[in-house]
Design goal:
alpha+beta, 21 helices, about 40% helix, globular
Length: about 700
C-alpha cells in the first residue's frame, strides 16, 4: 500500500514523464531510471538478467546491482592512483574508517547494526565492503554513514601522525625507557617490505612500469616514503581522489528488494553530495602515461632482510606491458599460460619442478603464470622457493632461456602434431573448469565484508567492461565460445597469437628477491641512527635534559595528546537495533508445502545457485524423556555410519569391500610405526638442553612482535 501511494504521488507530480520499467527483465541499455542511466545488463548462466550497471547522471557514480539471494551487501571502490611512495591510498584507507568523529561513528554504527566489514588497498583502487544481516533499512543507514566518512572525513593532524608514523616510548622490565618508531601504517609496511613476495612485486612493477610511474609506486607506502608524509599530503590526496565520479559500488540484494526502490534510495543518498555543475572527471588507467620500464631482458633482483642467505626465494619472468587484450583474448591468454605453467601436467612444471623429467634445476618448488587484466597486460611466469645459490645472474638467465625456448617450441609445433593436440586438449579441459568456476561464482553470495574477502567481483566486472555487448554474460559465454573456436581451428593457433601478444620474439625481464643478512644489519643501523637523531632533538627541545628524562617527557606528551584526541573524537554510544532479525535470512523467499505422505516441507528457491543443501527436522514429542539423550547421536549416525550389512554398519567408502577396509587400515598403521620410532627417538635426543642456552627478547608492539637475539 505504501509503495503504491508513493508511485501515485510521483505520477501526480510529473504526469508527463513516462514511468520507466523497474525490473531487471525489462531493462535495456540507455534507459533512464530513478536518476540513473542503464549502461549494461548482466546475464546469468541461463542468460537471464540478474543484475545491471547504472550510471548516476548527476554525480557520475557507478552502481552495479546484483540480484542474489543473500543478505544486503556492498563493495565500494575508489580509484586511488598513488602519486608517490608515501602510501597515500593505504593511509587514507586507515584514516577514513578509524579516525575522526566520522570514522568512529561508522565503527559504532557497524557494531550495533550486525555489520561485518573490511577494507584493503590495491595497486590503483581502494575498496571498502560490508554486509549486514539486519535488513534493507539498516543496510542503507550504514551505507549513508560510510559515504559521509569517505567524502567528509574530520580526522585531525594529530590523528594522521599517530596513524601514519610517529615516535613512541616503551619501557623494559628494569624501567629503562626506549624510543621506538610507531604508527599503524608504518609498522605494517615495515613488516610487509621484509616479505620476499613484496620485494619481488616491487621489482616487477619497477621493471615493467618504471620507478616514477603511477603503477610503479608502492600504494601501501615504502617505509622511507612514509617517514616523509605530512598531514597536508594526505589531505591533498583525499581532495583529488575521493569524489563520487571516481567511485562506485557493487551491491547485492535478494529478489524481495524492488529494483525501483533500491535505485531511488541510492539516488537520494548520492544527491546529498552531488556537485552543483557537471560531475568531475574520473581517474582512469587510460589517462596514465605509457610505461617507462627497463630495457628488454633486464634483470631486477631486490634484497630482502633475512639472516639465512639460503632462504628459498621467488623470481619471475615478466613480459612488458605493451599489449591490448579484449575479454576473449584475455581469457585465451590466461588458459594458454595456465596450461604452460601450473600443475604437474604443465610443460614448465615438468621442465623445472618434476624430479623425474627435470631439465633445468633452479631449485624451485612450484611454477605458475599470470596475465594481468589491465595496465598493458604484463605476463608473468612465477617461480617459488628457488634456491638462492642458483639465483645468480647466469643461473636466472639459463632458466629464462629454457622457458622461452619451450614457448617458442610450442608456437612452432606443426598442425596435427600429437604434442600440439595434447596441449590443446589440456587447454580445452581448463575451459570446462573455467565454465564450472564461473557458474559457481555467479551463483554464490559475494560475501562482501568478510575479512578474507577479495576483489573477485570488481575484477570480473572490469573484465566485462572490455566487451562490446550491452547485455553481458557473467559466465563469459561469448568469450568461451571464442576460445573453443580458436582451439578448433586448423593449424597451430598459438603461433599467431603468441606473436600478436608480443610473447615470442621478446626477451622477458627477470625480477625477484634474494635474502640478505647484510641488509638486516644495515636496516638496524639506519633505525638506530634515526632513533639517536630523534633522541638528540628531544634533548635539545627539553633544554638539554638527559636521554631518559627526554623520553619520559615525550611519553607524557604522547599520553596527553592521545587523551585529547579521545576526548575530541568521542562518540556517544549507539542503541542496538530495535527489531533485530530472528534468523540470518529474514528476507529469504520460502514456501511451506506437504509431501505426498504428509511430511511438511519448507523450501527456498534460487534462480542462480549451483549447489543446494537439504536438512531434516524430526519431531521429538514422541520420544520418551529418558531416551532423548540418544537423539544427539543421530547426526553422526546418519552421516557416517552408512548402510547396515548383516547387522553390521558398513562405511559407504568401503561398502561391499571388506578386504579394502582392512588394507586401508593396515598400511597407514605400518607407515606410522615406521615414521614414529625414529621420530620419538629424535625428540628425546633434542629434549636434552643442559648444554644449550638461548636468550630471546620479545617486545609486543601494537600490531606485531619484535624479536631480538642478543
Amino acid at each position: 500500500m505504501r509503495l503504491s501511494l508513493i508511485a501515485m504521488v510521483a505520477l501526480a507530480a510529473a504526469p508527463l514523464v513516462r514511468a520507466a520499467p523497474a525490473d531487471l527483465a525489462s531493462l535495456a541499455a540507455g534507459q533512464e531510471l530513478r536518476g540513473f542511466r542503464v549502461a549494461s545488463v548482466y546475464l546469468d548462466a541461463l542468460d537471464r538478467p540478474m543484475g545491471a550497471r547504472f550510471m548516476h547522471r548527476r554525480t557520475g557514480f557507478t552502481l552495479d546491482l546484483l540480484q542474489i539471494e543473500s543478505v544486503p551487501q556492498a563493495f565500494t571502490w575508489v580509484n586511488s592512483f598513488a602519486t608517490s611512495d608515501q602510501g597515500e591510498p593505504h593511509t587514507q584507507e586507515h584514516l577514513l574508517l578509524l579516525r575522526g568523529i566520522r570514522g568512529r561513528t561508522l565503527q559504532a554504527r557497524d557494531s550495533m547494526s550486525l555489520v561485518t566489514s573490511s577494507a584493503f588497498t590495491q595497486t590503483w583502487r581502494t575498496s571498502y565492503f560490508f554486509h549486514t544481516t539486519a535488513g534493507m533499512d539498516v543496510f542503507f543507514d550504514v551505507f549513508a554513514e560510510q559515504q559521509r566518512a569517505m567524502l567528509h572525513p574530520d580526522y585531525s593532524d594529530a590523528e594522521i601522525r599517530l596513524e601514519v608514523r610517529n615516535f613512541g616510548v616503551s619501557r623494559n622490565a628494569e624501567g629503562v625507557s626506549r624510543l621506538e618508531e610507531k604508527g599503524t601504517v608504518y609498522n605494517e609496511m615495515v613488516s610487509s617490505m621484509a616479505n620476499p613476495l613484496w620485494k619481488e612485486w616491487r621489482a616487477i612493477n619497477h621493471a615493467v612500469y618504471g620507478e616514477r610511474h603511477t603503477l610503479g609506486y608502492n600504494q601501501g607506502g615504502e617505509p622511507s616514503g612514509i617517514r616523509t608524509m605530512l598531514p597536508e599530503d594526505i589531505r591533498r590526496f583525499h581532495a583529488a581522489s575521493h569524489h563520487l565520479a571516481n567511485m562506485g559500488t557493487i551491491a547485492a540484494f535478494p529478489k524481495t528488494a524492488a529494483l525501483g526502490d533500491v535505485l531511488a534510495r541510492f539516488d537520494r543518498m548520492l544527491m546529498r553530495d552531488a556537485p552543483k555543475g557537471a560531475p568531475r572527471r574520473a581517474d582512469s588507467l587510460e589517462q596514465l602515461p605509457p610505461p617507462a620500464g627497463d630495457p628488454a631482458g633486464a634483470i631486477r633482483m631486490y634484497e630482502y632482510p633475512n639472516q639465512n642467505e639460503q632462504q628459498p626465494s621467488p623470481f619471475s619472468l615478466v613480459w612488458p606491458a605493451d599489449r591490448r587484450l579484449d575479454a576473449g583474448e584475455q581469457l585465451l591468454a590466461e588458459l594458454f599460460f595456465d596450461a604452460l605453467a601450473g600443475d604437474a601436467t604443465t610443460n614448465l612444471y615438468r621442465i623445472f619442478i618434476d624430479s623425474r623429467t627435470l631439465k633445468s634445476d633452479i631449485g624451485a618448488r612450484s611454477v605458475s603464470a599470470n596475465v594481468q587484466p589491465w595496465g598493458g597486460h604484463p605476463i608473468a611466469i612465477a617461480f617459488r622457493d628457488a634456491n638462492p645459490a642458483r639465483m645468480t645472474d647466469e643461473g636466472l638467465q639459463a632458466a629464462r632461456a629454457r622457458a622461452v625456448a619451450e614457448i617458442e617450441r610450442i608456437a612452432a609445433l606443426p598442425a596435427g602434431a600429437p604434442e600440439l593436440r595434447e596441449f590443446n586438449e589440456r587447454v580445452a579441459s581448463r575451459v570446462v573448469e573455467r565454465e564450472r568456476e564461473l557458474a559457481k561464482f555467479v551463483g554464490t553470495p559475494p560475501g562482501f565484508g568478510a575479512r578474507g574477502g577479495g576483489s573477485e567481483w570488481m575484477d570480473h566486472l572490469l573484465l566485462l567492461e572490455k566487451t562490446a555487448e550491452a547485455r553481458k554474460s557473467l559466465t563469459l559465454k561469448p568469450q568461451i565460445a571464442f576460445v573453443r573456436t580458436a582451439l578448433a581451428a586448423n593449424g597451430n593457433v598459438w603461433r599467431d597469437y603468441l606473436a600478436k601478444w608480443k610473447v615470442t620474439g621478446v626477451t622477458p625481464y627477470i625480477a625477484g628477491a634474494r635474502p640478505s643478512a647484510a641488509l638486516v644489519r644495515r636496516e638496524e643501523a639506519d633505525r638506530d641512527q634515526r632513533l639517536a637523531e630523534e633522541t638528540t632533538r628531544l634533548r635539545a627541545k627539553y633544554s638539554g635534559v638527559d636521554a631518559q628524562e627526554a623520553l619520559r617527557r615525550l611519553a607524557a606528551e604522547n599520553d596527553a595528546e592521545a587523551a585529547a584526541i579521545e576526548a575530541q573524537s568521542k562518540v556517544a554510544p549507539m542503541a542496538f537495533l530495535k527489531s533485530p532479525p530472528m534468523t540470518l535470512d529474514d528476507n529469504l523467499r520460502f514456501e511451506s508445502v506437504r509431501l505426498a505422505n504428509g511430511v511438511p516441507l519448507v523450501a527456498s528457491r534460487f534462480d542462480n545457485m549451483t549447489g543446494m543443501m537439504a536438512g531434516i527436522a524430526l519431531r521429538l514429542d514422541g520420544v520418551p524423556r529418558d531416551e532423548l539423550r540418544y537423539v544427539s547421536l543421530l547426526p553422526q549416525l546418519l552421516t557416517t555410519v552408512g548402510v547396515i550389512d548383516k547387522g553390521q554398519p558398513i562405511p559407504k567408502q568401503s561398502h561391499g569391500k571388506p578386504w579394502l577396509e582392512i588394507l586401508l587400515t593396515i598400511i597407514p598403521a605400518l607407515i606410522l610405526v615406521g615414521v614414529g620410532v625414529p621420530t620419538v627417538s629424535a625428540v628425546f635426543k633434542l629434549a636434552k638442553t643442559s648444554d644449550t642456552e638461548c636468550v630471546i627478547n620479545v617486545t609486543g608492539q601494537q600490531w606485531w612482535w619484535e624479536y631480538d637475539y642478543p
